[in-house]
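[Automated response] Your request has been received and processed.

Submitted sequence:
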Amino acid sequence: MLTLGHDDILLGRHADSWQTALDSAAEALVEAGLVEAEYRDGLHAREAQSSTFLGNAIAIPHGTQESRQYVKHTGVRVLQFPQGIEWHDGQRVHALVAIAAQNDEHLDILRQLTHVLDREGVSELLANATSAADVARLLSKPTLTPRLDTDTLCVNFPARDPQELALAAAARLRQSGCVDNSFISAVATVEPTWLGKGLWLASSSQGVNQPALGVVTPADHSLESAGYPVHALFCLAAHGDAHRPLLEQLMALLDSGASDTLLSRNSDQLLALLAGETASTQTRRVRILNPHGLHARPAKQLVQAARAQAIAINVRLEEGSATPVSAASLTKVIGLGARRGQWLVLSAEGEQADHALNTLADAIESGLGEKVTPFDGGRDSEQMNTAPKADMVPLSADTPHTGVAASPGLAIAPVFVVRPLTFDYSQHAEDAEHELCRLRAALKEGATQLQALVRNAPGSEVADILSMHEEMLDDPELYHAASDAIREGRSAEAGWWEAIETAAHAQEMLADRLLAERAADLRDVGRRVLGVLCDVSLPEPPDHPYILVMDDIGPSDVARLDTSRVRGLLTVRGGATAHSAILARALGIPAVVGAGQAVMALNNASMMILDGERGRVTFNPSEERLQRAEKQLSELQQREADAWETRFDIAQTRDGHRIEVAANLGNTAHAADAVERGAEGVGLLRTEFLFMAHASAPDLATQIGEYRQAIEALDGRPLVARTLDVGGDKPLPYWPVPQEDNPFLGLRGIRLALTQPDVLETQLRALLMAGKDSPLRIMLPMVKDIAEFRAVKAIYDRLMQEIPSSERATDVQLGVMIEVPSSALLAPSLAAEVDFFSVGTNDLTQYTLAIDRGHPELSAQADGLHPAVLRLIQMTVAAAHSQGKWVGVCGELASDAVAIPVLVGLGVDELSVSARQIPLVKARLREFDLAEAQASAQLALSQATSDEVRDALEAR
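Generated structure:
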């Protein structure tokens, strides 16, 4: 629940504009110690994406996903504006609930505020509030939502009479936090009431925290009491009138005549019946694909689609409440709290139900106005009862294999492979009570083991996570899910693992990657208990240094590590934010995760080189490769220290060949930091940051001020500014683009900018005026041929004539980015008219190789050292130099230590990299001379694949 203290609320604020109000909100969050100053840009960028106006004079500004790195602590600050502010979408705002959220907590706050939206007069009350307590009461007043979901159900409970069923249901409500012990005591003193048709009712209003309905069906389908059949017992936690919807559902069930089917239904089927879905009801299951679930924007689209139908449509969460809500109510839809990966159940009745449900399902699957990616079903569940596949293809010897870089460092040691344990057990058992006793004993033993591991944990991080595992073992939801399965005929092992897999899969479906990767912790806990049940233990590790290889390394595995012997960690799955990676970094152990199933086929004691910085492993390396790795290991730390000491030296090769090293910036505020790190200029300023931080295109004065900030910080060093590059994966809400099947091949870059030449002209004018008395380079993105360049050049030439030379840059050049193969192939015609080229190797590689660099399986193959990409760079350099023009490289390849001599050998004049890479890139240049670089380039061009290129270069 949203709780607000006196210090969280700031009264009597005034702002001339919504931007000023947003700045005040950012300052309040900074002063409260919740965020760093940079979070302000995230607030503005989020408003540029869409308005955070919620309703009833309330806006909930929060940062973008990228700005979460600046959040110190999760929290809120409420700013009251009695005179009101006109928000950028035309709405009147009297209260800003500014949110600092490290994950998706703002979604929970949004849901907690929906009760305010249904109340009349709130906007006036917020405007006129004279105390923080008044504002807190208006915003924090919770609504008691009646609860009926899987946590309040208990199917096939072994009971001898309705009274035992009533106590079981009351206990379930207490475990769900809906009632306290006094409720159970009250239920125990009253005989359940016969409702008819096999249904019984027990109720009380004592000790009720939240109105709820517990439902229990007996394991004995022939159970009777006082001559009446017992099909189900309902336990009602009453609270004022708030429980009325639950009574209405109960009455609907009685009227339906379906009570005799309750005994044969499982939990999901029982929820569907209680939701009012009868034989005449048509339903559709549809999955939420939106990255942040049904928050305000997609929920609004869903409601509009529902209202456009001729019949009423209801919606509920399949795994959540049995209480459906109207799909035409925005507050009700938001209140569902649906997250990415969860299933919705749409329901309707009537002749047009089929068409209406299909229309709504199609809208949800298409993203409700947001870009979404479909699920592939999630990760495959672990096969706990099968050994590793015999036909698994092992890694090739002396060949680098790519995974996910998780913890930096270099490790050289033999591998120790811990293969998934084989748990042999029966899926079914007849004696449920015996199986439940076995499960409880295994849980107790698992807790004892964890307590011992916590005491001996090698560090506080490990101990904290293992303590969390103890909490997981005490989770009543896991236990109840397992016990329900056991009562339905499963064995203790099968019921427990089914509960673990269900919970882990749900965790993996969360939009927040950090939370999703906690599924590994659930499975780690699950395997511990399963090991106790099956009497299976892990093999003993060797007594010499080794690289540990596992399917996924859980905290309890890390707790058992002897850090004096473990040189590195390698896993089949996982990501850079998984606990295995976090713990590896905490312990200083190099790690590569997500390397794929092939690593499980490695033979124990085989030698391996593990590079945690680059996310690469090499199995059975050659003697030459091994010697190089050992040398690299000893030199690594010294190189980093030396590079920092010499970061201000001129960037040049060992024999004095000059190569300018510049910085890639996504914000003008970072220019000073780049200079401090040794940057000789800015080789790429991504100006879209400025456009994304505003709800409409920034005006001339705003742009001049932003660009001048970077120019002044550079103190005479050159600035290469890329004109607005949006579209594709970077849309602007105030610059709508028609939906495209493939936006990366549609309106983006310069072709999009040319559709609104007035916006482009304002930006060019601002850059020219901001660059007065400083070297300025203007770069056009995604140019495919000379026609696009000439269209912009015409605007540029006119501005150069209109703006007096005393008011604009005079040392100025106009160039293009080489990002698509056509521009490289046509480089000779471009070079005759442009002033310079800058090669964007990220997109050039993507378009040349037809591999999306964000693809989860193919991204590792999108290597800029592919010979096809190198040949395009070679053609670009040759064309430019023949016209006396210079060429830079501003993609990730420019900071790749292996690629740097190749790029220099191809004739590249400038390398633009992230600011933190500048000292190392300068140091790398000093390690070779021009002749060696040219030899490296020719060697790379003679290879057939990127892997062959890297192998050949490493073998030099």
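Summary generated for your ticket: The chain has a mean pLDDT of 82. The two ends are 63 Å apart (CA to CA).
If you did not submit this request, please reply to this message.
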